[in-house]
Amino acid sequence: ETGVTQSPTHLIKTRGQQVTLRCSSQSGHNTVSWYQQALGQGPQFIFQYYREEENGRGNFPPRFSGLQFPNYSSELNVNALELDDSALYLCASRTLSGSSTDTQYFGPGTRLTVL
Amino acid sequence: AQSVTQLGSHVSVSEGALVLLRCNYSSSVPPYLFWYVQYPNQGLQLLLKYTSAATLVKGINGFEAEFKKSETSFHLTKPSAHMSDAAEYFCAVSVGTGGFKTIFGAGTRLFVKA
User: Which stretches of A1-115 are assigned E, i.e. beta strand?
Assistant: First the structure.
């Protein structure tokens, strides 16, 4: 158990819809990252939030957006869903100390299926 | 640009045999390297990480990895496989100020035969 929780565990949407995924970080962590893991692939970095501000982004379009709240919980929002958005979405939290070796703690993920 | 290549999408070993999962990286700066394990329907768990302190890194569950700069490799090994080691393994490199971006390999699925 890492202390990072995600909800819901599974979700089915149709193309064009919008979805919000939620993550509760481990206590004391001020940084959260979101990843997309398509079937049979490694996780792909979407973006990272530090103290409620986005401070890093991968190669994902603007319809992927996020929020981080003062209690360090966070949301991933995806608009205009496409079939290729079907994936496991992982969040990971850590305490950012300026070191690239800070350990990230991953949640169990949300499995999104777009029909 | 940084990247990670895992050689072999599937590896099968017998219980008690040596486990060797291969990872090569590309980085223009000294890398920070990680191995994660993912069990079915679960998130990622950190096995070990290379922080430049020592080239041989020991992790959890009896796994270890050796950083070889000359070969740009960070292979994961375990002397004796156990059935519970069957899972997906990911090699990753951390980049960016504060390590904000982790790049993962495509993963290697380990099968352990009885």
Answer: 5-7, 10-13, 19-24, 31-37, 44-50, 53-57, 64-68, 73-78, 87-94, 105-106, 110-114
Plot region of B24 (φ>0 → left; ψ -120 to 50 → alpha; else → beta): beta
Rounded CA separation B52/B31 (Å): 8
B32–A42 CB contact, under 8 Å: no
Question: Average pLDDT over chain B, rounded to whole?
Answer: 90
- In tens, the pLDDT along B40-64 reads 878 899 999 988 778 899 999 999 9
Say if strands B101-104 and B87-95 run parallel, antiparallel, or are unpaired: antiparallel
Sort out which chain B residues have CB atoms less than 8 A from A108's CB and list them: 41-43
Q: d(Cα B82, Cα A44) in Å, to the nearest integer?
A: 29
Q: Is the pLDDT of residue B114 over 70?
A: yes
Q: How far apart are CA A71 and CA A24, in angstroms?
A: 9
Of B98, B104, B107, the CB nearest to A100: B98
pLDDT in tens, B5-28: 999 999 999 999 999 999 999 877
